[in-house]
Amino acid sequence: MRKPSGGRSDVAELQVPDDSELMPRPQVREDLDPSRAQPVIQLGDLAVSYSGKLAVEDVNLDFGYREITALIGPSGCGKSTVLRCLNRMNDLVLGAEVSGRVTYHGQDIYAPEVDVIELRRRVGMVFQKPNPFPKSIYDNIAFGPRVMGRKQDLDDTVEEALTKAALWDEVKSKLKQSAFALSGGQQQRLCIARAIAVQPEVILMDEPCSSLDPIATAKIEDLMQDLKREFSIVIVTHNMQQAARVSDRTAFFTATVRDDGQRVGELVEFDTTPRIFSNPKESRTEGYITGRFG
């Protein structure tokens, strides 16, 4: 297994097609075969261990261009572990080891020449709990572009990111106020805007609504539908209704208890969301969807 290494700034950037080479595909249909989707990120025989203990294995999964993919399953099945592999956030976990292949537009993101900082710009992340910086609303959004050396048109960048996150109208008169003055739902949309500001292609969301009330959750779900016009989104959620509402495709994970008592996560089924929720192929998927376990 490979032990993830930290990011480097003295290596080549990821080589990916420019926007002119990436053609948007139509909305998902019930008769759309997942194998026909042009993937942005592909996982091949992915396995992750923590301090030598296997957490998830044999994950083969494709994430489509400008689609929302939901990862669902009971606690401890490896959903968030898999999500963190997509932009190497597991590099920051002591003892994490990754094997298999994770590719972004065909390039192995764990290759030694990959600049992890650039990878995380292209594949941004929104965490379970809102985590605004202890700065003003404006400076939260401008932080990433400034780190990238962007000094011109910051006002336009901030406005554009907040507009895309459906937050501009609510905060445009108080940009210099602390981000902590916002409500929980507003803070989460601020974090989404902060991710958008550095112009990623993929946005990862790890249970982004778990700490929000139903009204704030509905706003985030509506926002996701708007964002997928420009971004590929991968969301981990325990809320099956949320997965059914927002996603184009759904991957169901579960954990198997082995003879030695160790729980190991595995991917059970991946398909279009209508098929997963109405006509799953695997009995374990049906059992989870119908509430018989999990």
Number of strands: 10
Count of spatially separate domains: 1
Helix run count: 10
The CATH class is identified as: Alpha Beta
CATH fold-level assignment: Rossmann fold
Shape, per Cα inertia axes: globular
Q: Keyphrases for this structure?
A:
Rossmann fold; 294 residues; 4-stranded antiparallel beta sheet; globular; 25% strand; alpha/beta; 6-stranded mixed beta sheet
Report on the structure:
It is a single chain. This protein has 294 residues and is an alpha/beta fold. It has one domain: Rossmann fold, CATH 3.40.50. It contains ten helices and ten strands. The protein has helices at residues 79-85, 116-122, 137-147, 154-164, 168-171, 184-196, 214-227, 240-246, 273-278, 283-289, and strands at 39-50, 53-64, 68-72, 96-104, 107-108, 123-126, 202-206, 232-236, 249-257, 263-272. Helix 3 crosses helix 4 and helix 6 packs parallel to helix 7 (214-227). The longest helix is centred in the last third of the chain and has 14 residues, at 214-227.
